[in-house]
Amino acid sequence: MIIVTGGAGFIGSAVVWGLNRRGVDDIVIVDELGSTEKWKNLTGLRFQDYFEKDDFRSRIAAGDFSRTASAIIHMGACSSTTVTDASYLIDNNYRYTVELARFAVRHDIRFVYASSAATYGDGARGYDDTAPIDPLRPLNMYGYSKQLFDLWARNEGMQDRMVGLKFSNVFGPNEYHKDDMRSVPVKAYRQIVESGTVALFKSYRPDYADGEQMRDFVYIKDVVEMVLFALDDTGVSGIFNIGSGRARTWNDLARAVFAAMDVPVAIDYIEMPSALRDKYQYYTELPMAKFHDAGWRGQVMSLEDAIRDYVCEYLTVDARLDSDGALHRRHETGRNSTKFQPQE
Fold first, then answer.
1. How far apart are CA 280 and CA 302, in angstroms?
2. Is the per-residue pLDDT at 155 higher than 70?
3. Domains of the chain by range and CATH?
4. Helix axis angle, 184-195 relative to 303-310, nearest 10°?
5. Span 131-145, mean pLDDT?
6. In the predicted model, is pLDDT for residue 343 greater than 50?
7. What is the DSSP letter of 1?
8. Cβ-proximal residues to 223 (8 Å cutoff; 6+ apart), any chain
9. Where are the beta strands (DSSP E) in the chain?
């Protein structure tokens, strides 16, 4: 049996979808649904049981699942970079992960967990997953909560008993509940439907033109394959970057959304909030050599192909990942074409 924490969330539900496509449904999902619409990500998935996070933590402390679980894929965390309650993040992102790691190691259970590229901070120290992690300086409490666990696992001598994955800018279906933390592709899609334009931040550095700031974008379907590789290969351990390995510009991304929707490109460059200007990353690209050296032989989709799949197969028809192959519609939109007539 495989436990997936955060299994109703964006990456977690996609991992369950990937397991289902392999024919695996002996899965226990753990999450904290609250009043969100994350539950909708579960309706197209197959699994054996569901537990709320606090109940699950109590059961782990009591030793439940020690004889039945073969693996824990720990994607459960608060992923908001704007949360300021540091005590909450310490408990939810750091302490919770420590509890699961100790449990997994004690009972020889495969443990794959979500770290984050946010641990790299502003990138001044690079994005090298082979370099020491001590010098890294995250820019926000979310990144620091992830860094704390990476350091704990190293200090406890447990890194060779688990796999940590530093996710880059992941986008794709099942992220709809994330509100302001949704990826730019889905935000751009909504903007184009409503106004025919996409708003991108201006650049405040002379070496980058407006919209030419760069990110390592990676599609959720590629991320799922990487997570499952880390799950499968029990000889793989340590911390790895998870991205495309190629930086692309925000302009590239916006143009790809326009192309997928078959409407003319219209980009507005807007002022960046002053609070962000000193913390803004102008370039991120995650080297993937370490993951390839570990045995990963997959090829990620190009940004253009990934955007086209996202827009045409999911956003246009308001769909989520569905393990039975059918599109699960959140509501009927009446749209049956990728040709849009933006509102005036």
1. 25
2. yes
3. 2-170+216-246+286-293 (3.40.50.720), 172-215+247-284+303-320 (3.90.25.10)
4. 60
5. 92
6. no
7. -
8. 11, 14, 167, 170, 172, 242
9. 2-5, 27-31, 49-52, 71-74, 110-116, 163-167, 169-171, 198-201, 214-215, 217-219, 238-242, 248-249, 267-270, 319-320, 328-329
Distance CA 8, CA 178 (A): 12
More confident residue, 243 or 332: 243
How far is C-alpha 329 from the geometric centre of its chain's CA atoms? 22
Average pLDDT over residues 299-307: 96
Token code pair at residue 135: 């010098």
| Phi, then psi, of 94 in degrees rounded to 5 | -95, -60
Q: What is the pLDDT of residues 162-171, one digit of tens each?
A: 999 999 999 9
Q: What are phi and psi of 215, to 5 degrees?
A: -140, 160
pLDDT score of 329 = 43
Helix axes 141-155, 96-106, angle to 10 degrees: 30
pTM of the model: 0.91
pLDDT at 338: 40
* Partners of residue 248 on adjacent β-strands: 215
Give residue-wise pLDDT tens across range 27-80.
999 999 998 899 999 999 999 999 999 999 999 999 999 999 999 999 998 877
Rounded to 5 degrees, what are φ and ψ at 3? Answer: -95, 130
Using the structure block, give the residue that is written with the tokens 């397991």.
Answer: 19
Which of 341, 321, 333, 337 minimizes the C-alpha distance to 15? 321
- Dist CA 173 CA 26 (whole Å): 23
DSSP element (H, E) containing 16: helix 10-21
Which are the catalytic amino acids? 142, 178
| Residue 325, SS3 per DSSP | coil
Locate 280 and state its tokens: 């803004």
pLDDT at 85: 87
Residue 244: other Cβ atoms inside 10 A: 23
Q: Would you put residue 205 in left (φ > 0), alpha (ψ -120 to 50) or beta?
A: beta
Does 294 score more than 90 pLDDT? yes
Q: How far is CA 190 from the centre of its chain?
A: 20
